[in-house]
Design brief:
The complex is a heterodimer of chains A (426) and B (650). Chain A is α/β, with parallel strands linked by helices and 426 residues long. Chain A has 2 domains: 288 residues, Alkaline Phosphatase, subunit A; 58 residues. Chain A contains 14 helices and 12 strands. Chain A starts with a helix and ends in a 29-residue tail after the last helix. Chain B is 46% helix and 6% strand. In chain B, helix 5 packs antiparallel against helix 18 and helix 6 packs across helix 7. The longest helix of chain B has 24 residues. Chain B starts with 16 loop residues before the first helix and ends with a strand. The relative contact order of chain B is 0.13. At the A-B interface, helix 2, helix 8 and helix 9 of A face helix 22, helix 26 and helix 27 of B.
Amino acid sequence: MKELLQTLDEPSRRAFLLYAAKTTLGVSLAPCFLTGAEEAPSSQKSLKKAPCERVIFLYMKGGMSQTDTFDPKESPGIGGPSKPIATQSPDLKISDKLPKLAMQGNDLSVIRSMTTKTGAHSQARYVMHTGYRQRTGMTHPQLGSWAQMFLGKSDPILPSSVVIASGNPGPGFLAPDYSPLPIGNASRGIKDLLPKIDKAKLEKRVRLAKGFSSSFAHYFPHEEVRAYSDFYDQTVKFISGDMAEPFDIMREPGNLRNRYGNHAFGQGALLARRLVERGVRYVEVTSNRSWDSMHGGSKNLANLANELDGTVSSLMTDLRDRGMLDSTMIVVTSEFGRTPKVKSNGGRDHHPNGFSAMLAGGGIKGGIAVGETDENGRDPFPEFEPKDLHATIAEALGMTGTKIRRLPGRPSFLGGKPKPIKEILA
Amino acid sequence: MHRPLLIPLLLTCLTPLWAARPQPAPFNPSKEKAGIMRTSVQRINAVIDQKLSQEKLPYNSPMNDFLFARRVYVDLTGTIPTYEELVHFANDERPRKRTYLINRLLASEGYVSHTFNYFANLLRIQSKSSDKDLGSEFFMGWMKDSIHQDKPYNRMVYEMVSSSGSIMENPATGYHLRDKDMKLDHVAFMTKIFLAKDIACAQCHDHPSDDWTQKQYYAFASYLGELEIGKGDDLKKEKERKMIYAAKEKLFHHPRFSTAVKSKYGNNQMAQKKIKSFRQDFKKLSEGKILSVYDDRSSELPLPDDYQYDDAKPGDVVKPAFIVGRPLGGPKNANLREQLGYWLSHPQNGWFSLAIANRMWARYLGQGVAEPLHNVEIRKASNPLLLKTLSEVMVALDFDLRAFSWVVLHSKSYNRLASRVETAEGKRFHFPGPVLRRMSAEQIWDSLVTLMVKDPLRYRQPAPPSLLDVRDGWSALEFIDNRTDGKYRLVDSRTGETILVEGNDQTSLSQQRISVSSRTGKKRNNLILARASELPQPAPSGHLLRKFGQSERLFVVGASSRVGSVPQLMELMNGFPTEVLTGDDSLLFRKVRSVSDPRKQAEVAFLSILNRLPTESEKALLLKQTGSSESDLSDLIWALLNTPEFFFIK
C-alpha cells in the first residue's frame, strides 16, 4: 500500500484522518476531527474553486516602516525620506523607494489600516503569525498548519508548509504532523536533514529495514502500522536525491537567482517559488535584515527597500511568467509599523497603531489601497487586526466553507470574530 | 478500615532522595496486601473471562519470554531491556520468574523515572515558564521523591491540593503554581485529571449535553476561592523572612561552612566568589521575593459579569459544592482547600478511584475500560463491571500504584499478545489482550538512550532540598548549590558531582560521554544523553522527544501524540541519535562488534534493538545483503532502528 494518502479518495482520506485521530489522540479529539472533516465536504470542490491555491508569506522582521513602503505621506515634516509615486494603477501610490513594484501596481494591493495591540517585537510577531495574543501556557498554530488541518495535505510527499529563516511558532497545539518544515538557510535547502551517506548505502539500509519490517507488518495488519510504513516510504522518497530537488535552488538558472537578489531574503523567496510550484501550499520567508530602524540611517533604509523592491517584484514576475500568479497569493507584512515622523536621530519608533500589508496574486484584487491612516499616519480606519488578515487569506484559500469548530478546551482557528477584508478579495 | 487522610499542614522535610540515593523503596507488600493483590487478579480475570465467553471471543496468544520482558520493561521502566537483562531473564529457569521480574522492576529507578513522565504529562509540568521564578525544579523533585518513596496516590493528591507556603518550604505547592493566574482553568484541569469529568464548557456557559451548569462550575471552583498566589500576607512574609535569616545565620556561622566551600571548590578565590553569591541569594530570599501559595479568607470567586442565567446574578458568590458524588464529612475547622483535598482523595469518593484505576489500566493495556479517560460515562464503558472492579481494587490496595500495577500486570489480559486486528468501528473492545500501541515519545527516547549509554539513570536532574532542611553548612551548601537559578543541570547520582550546567561547556566530568555535539552547517547541536525524566520538561522543540509527540505540557487531553510524520522519521533515519548509535564508539556498536561470529553479531543486534531473534528469512536476507565489516554493522543497526517494530509494543 504505497502512498496511502495519495491513492485514497477524499472520503476514505477523511476516514483515515478520523481513524488516526481516534487511535492516536484518544477518542476525545475524534468528534472534532469528524465534524471538522465532515463539515468540509466542500473541501475537495472548494480546493479547486478556491481563488488561491497557495500562499507565500513574506515577513519583514523588526517592524517594516509603512511610510517608506506602502503608505507614503506627502505632508511636510511627515514621511521623512520617502515620497509617494504613481504606480501602474491610477488608484494606488506607493513609496518612491519601491519603483519596480510601482510598475506592477495593477497586480498588487495594500491594506493601510492594519493595527495590532502590542508594541513589543516578540509579542506582536506572535500575533501576526497566529492571529492570537500570546498567553501563558499556550501556543497557537501558524496559518499553514491550520490550512493543512482543514484542507488536507497539499502534496503526498512534500510538507504542506515550509518556513524559511523564520521564528514561526509551528503547529502549536495541533499534532506534530501539522508541523511546517523549517529551513534555516535557503541556499543550503534541506542538506542538513539529508543522509550523510551515499545513495547506494542508503538504499541498502532501506532494503534491510524493509526486510526486517515485513514479519511485524504481516502479523499486525493495523492501519497505524501501515501508516508508519507509508511514512517511511514517503520519507525515503523525500530524502533520496530526487525529492531533495524541490529544495535545491542551485538548479535554478543563475540569472534568475541574481534577479531575486543575492541575499538570504531573495534566495528564500526563490526557494518559496520553487516549493509552491511543486506542491507546497504555504511558505513563509522571513527577511532577517533589520527593519528595526529605531536609530535611523537612510542608507540602511535604502538597502532594505531596495531588497524588498527587487525580490518581491521578481517573485511576481516569475510567478506571472509561469502562469501561477493568479493562484498564488503573496503577502508582505511585519509585526507592526514605524512612526511616520522621523526622530532627531533619523530613526523611527515602533508604531503598532497603523501599519501596512501588501497583498498580490491569487484571490487578490489588484491596484487598490484599502483603509487609510490620517495625514500624520495615525488613526487607521477601518481598523484591521492580524486576525482579519488571517481570515482574508483563509477565505481566499477556501477555508471558510469549512465550518470551523472548536477543539475541546482549545481556541479555534480565528478567534474573536475576525472580518475577512472583502474589499481586497477579487 | 480507611485512615482519614487529613494530615495537618505539615511541611514535609525531605532531602532530595531521587537525586542522591540510588535505590527506591523496595517492593515488599505486607502479607495481607499480597493476599488482596492475588485475589484482585482473580477477580479481574473472572470479569473478563465472563465477558469474553459471553461474546464468544478467545484470549489472544500467550507471549514468549522475550516479548514478555520487552513489554514489562517498556511499561514499567520506560525503556527496552538491555541485551544482558534480556538474556539473563530468558536463561532464568525459576518457574515464577515473571513475577520476580515484575517485583524487581517495580522497585527500580526506571520505574520512578517512567512514572514521573506519566505524572509530568498529566500535571503539565514545565521546567521553565514565562514567570521566571516558579521554582518548578522543587516540584519535580517532590514528584520524583513521592514516587521513589512509594507514597499512596491519594496522599500525593491531598498534599498537592491542600499545599501552602513557598515552593522552597513545601514543594507540593508547585501544583497550584503551575496554573498561576488561571484559576478557572486550574479547576477544569483538576476535574479532568482527578475525577474523570470534563466540565470545561461550563466555565463559560451551561453545558449543552452534560449535567453541569455554569453555577455548578463556580460552586465547585469556590473551593479554590480563597486560594491566592503571591508574595503572601504580612504575617506569612514575616515568618518566612525570619526563617531565612535563621538559615543564613546558621549558614555563615557554621564552622564547617567555609571548610565545606573550600573543599568543594578547591581554590580560595573560587570559594570566596561562591560565598559572595550565596550572600546575594539569601538577600533575595530575605527580601521576600518568593511566591507563596496561601489562603485569604476574604478572597472569593464571584460569578462572571456576563452571567446569563436566572438562578443567580453576575457577581454573586456561590456556596462551595462538590461537582459529583456527595460530601464525605471531614474536619470542621479545615480551610476550603483542605476540605477539597480531603473529599477528593477520600476512598469513598468513587469518581476519584475510578479515574485513576481506569487511567492505570489504560497505561498498561493501551486503552481505558471507559474512554475518554478525562470524561468517563459509566454506561459507555466497554465493561462497566470491569470498571467497577478496578476501582474497588484501587481502594482495597490503598491507592498503592505499584501494587495496582502488579495486579494489572498479572492479569490474563496483560499476559497475552496485543490484538492482531483492530476492533471494528463502533464495536467494544473486551481485552482479550492489550491494544497494539506505539511507544510514547519518552519510551522511544529512553530506549535509544539505553542503547547509547551505560546506566543512564545514574545521571539525574537534581532538585534542591526543602529550605526547612537547611541545618548546617553542608545542607546549606547543598541547598544553594542545587538551587538552579533556572539553569538546567545534571548530577552523577553515584558521586554527587555536578557534571553539566546549562551554558557551561566545561562541566562535563563524567567517565562516559553523556553530552555529545555535532556540527550541522554552522550550528552546533548538543545532545544530552540522559533519560527523558532528567531532561528539561518538556524537551526543547526540535528534540527527538518532541518530534515523536512529547506533550508541550499545555494540555491534558490529546497533548502528547503517537502519530507519525515525515520530519519525525527523518530524525530517526538521519538524525543525530541515529548517527551516534551507528557510530563505532556507541555502547551498542561496541557490544555487537565484541562478538566475533557474524551470525552471532546479528543475534546480538536483534536482541538489543527488537528484543527478539532474527527469523530464518531475516537471516537469509542478511547473508545476501551484508557482511561483517564495521560499515555493515552500522547498516544493520540503522535498519533495525528504522523498522516500525522497534517503536511498537506488541
